[in-house]
Amino acid sequence: MLTTIIVNYNVRHFLEQCLLSVRKANPNGALGDVWVVDNNSSDDSVAMVRQHFPEVQLIANQQNTGFAVANNQAIRESAVLSPQSAVPSLQSAVLSPQSAASAYVLLLNPDTVVAEDTLTKCLDFMEAHPEAGGLGVKMIDGSGTFLPESKRGFTTPWVAFCKTFGLSAIFPKSRLFGRYHLGFLDKNETHEVDVLAGAFMLLRRSVLDKIGLLDEAFFMYGEDIDLSYRIVQAGYQNYYFADTAIIHYKGESTKKGSLNYVRTFYQAMIIFARKHFQGRQATLFVAMIYGAIWLRAGMTLLGNFFKKSQIPVLDALLMFSGLWLSKTFWASYFYHDPDWFKPEFMQFNAPFYTLVWLASLWFSGGYDEPFNLRRLTRGLLLGTVVISAVYGFLPQDLRPSRAVILLGTAWALLALTALRFVFHFFKTGNLSVGRSRLANLAIVGSAEECERVRGLLAKAGVERNFIGRVAPNDIYDLRFTIYDCLGAMDNLDELAALYHLDEIIFCLKDITASQTIGWMERLGPRLEYRTVPEGGQTIIGSSSKDSAGELYTTSIRFNIANPTARRSKRLLDLGLAFCFLLLAVPLLFLVKKPGGFLRNLVQVFLGKKSWVGYSSWQTTVHSPQSGPTRPTLPRVKQGVLNPVHAFPGSQLDEATAQRLDFFYAKDYEIGRDLAVMRKGWRELGG
């Protein structure tokens, strides 16, 4: 009766949880078949589906075909599996997937969790409403917040204008300005709506036969709006169904704050406008969308710049003002002349010193979270050493007293540390800078599952202040003491307030997805929520609809992915390239391929290559620690040399080379690059 289609791209852990929830909502395939279309993921999604979900029909594409093309693949193939036949009603038929072509198609995102009764309730509604061409449901994000895109209106020029210039956000419940998300409609009541969300889109197959499948001109975004529009144009109704809810972990396929998201989304809107509007209306609509692109792109750039640069900008102001104070103090105290220093000091020296300190802070990890006083001190001292080294090469009139440099360093260390204390205090309410307060955690589940989850947290290196376990209602025993159990799940809201909980983990082996969704809605976004699938090794959650989901996973961690390690590697590349440039003439006679050495030198300077990379310059290898799985190594630039060059003269097979790549990424430090360079320097022209 129902074909469920999930298009996946590099979200293996979310896909696994989604399929587990679908399995519970569709036990033994009683409601129909399930399809996964994988768009050439590199995270072992295909192997996971084959191993853990043999009942799922899998299409493994060799390229990322996009959302519309992938869904259409499964819709066509599911219809071909068996001849189409009519199904009288959900209540009177329990069909195997192959007994008849499904009467309904569900397009479902992989970063969703459906409740146990979601599919049954939705199918019952569609059977009772033959005029319904499509149906969407209430969606909440990982913080329990209602997602307004659960119900939307068509994007007309006026709606686009209100959305672009923020009128829909200012007046969300207005029938005039709030038509984008239909904010004037009660989210807890079922309504006819214009647009269904592609994250959960239940469609009547007979309607698809009449209006056609998803428009493959849309790569991502917009295809749901286009299909919803065509359903209504064909004389059917779209419904927002409020009697069931799902979790939608937003942000898994695209970073919502990125320029790429802005460009992709609004380009889809342009395709829609040109397809469905004519003449002046189409011109006005497209003009509005282009205006929205520039406005949103500008806001995104400014927002990202402010978010990333606010602390460095404040640091620069503090450093610059500190140099002015140091200059003024030293001129008055030592030279007894407030005007002893020439104007060139503030025009050249102070900006130069500030830039050097900022650069050294960045390279030393002074701007990485969480704040670390050791990295801050190291960065400032490194900058001071660089300034002191350059000092002797400056003209005499640009060499003021070295005491000002030392005073400026002391000021910068105190002022920048104080700034971070202030930021941390306003963010957390405490002064434990560098040591964030451990979040108070409760786990909802059985004692056995609770211990398993605590073990997963320990393996993943996640530190939490574990307050206790909350027992599901059906296994709560009044004889439990506070040391065994905090209480029953029925009192979760009271327990959260009593113990000042910050985070709750729901064990889906012991409680239903419906209960989890209900409690997330009830407690709201003041807490963080995570779920652990039955037998899963990953704890999943997301605290914002605009941020990618967060994983607590026992997967291998690679040092080379650390931002500080990446900066150190790049700095080492540049430093060695500079040294090789000075020694270029003698090296040309020593390396095996002089011409290749010069080309590599240029490419390293330009950032196109690194002196050391992976042996096969591939990111997917077999892990010697995890059997047949294929962990994706963090991407690095193509290397002139690789870990194999540390064993000159050895005949190493491909499997050994891949193991060397694996351990190089896992245990990376710049000493490994130096060791490879020391052994393989004659191959620098390769």
Question: Any overview of this molecule?
Answer:
This protein has helices at 12-25, 45-52, 67-80, 118-128, 157-164, 167-170, 205-211, 223-233, 259-276, 279-333, 344-363, 373-391, 402-428, 447-460, 492-498, 513-523, 563-582, 584-588, 594-605, 654-666, 670-680; strands spanning 2-8, 32-39, 57-61, 104-108, 112-114, 132-140, 191-193, 200-204, 237-248, 440-444, 465-471, 487-488, 503-507, 528-532, 538-541, 550-553, 609-612, 638-641. The chain is of the alpha/beta class. It has four domains: 2-141 and 190-247, Spore Coat Polysaccharide Biosynthesis Protein SpsA, Chain A, CATH 3.90.550; 310-428, no CATH class; 440-553, Rossmann fold, CATH 3.40.50; 559-683, no CATH class. The strands form three sheets. Strands 1, 2, 3, 4, 5, 6, 7, 8 and 9 form a nine-stranded mixed β-sheet that branches. Helix 2 links the parallel strand 2 and strand 3 (57-61). Helix 10 (279-333) crosses helix 11 (344-363). The longest helix has 55 residues, at 279-333. It is globular and about 90 Å long. The N and C termini lie far apart (60 Å). 39% of the residues are buried.
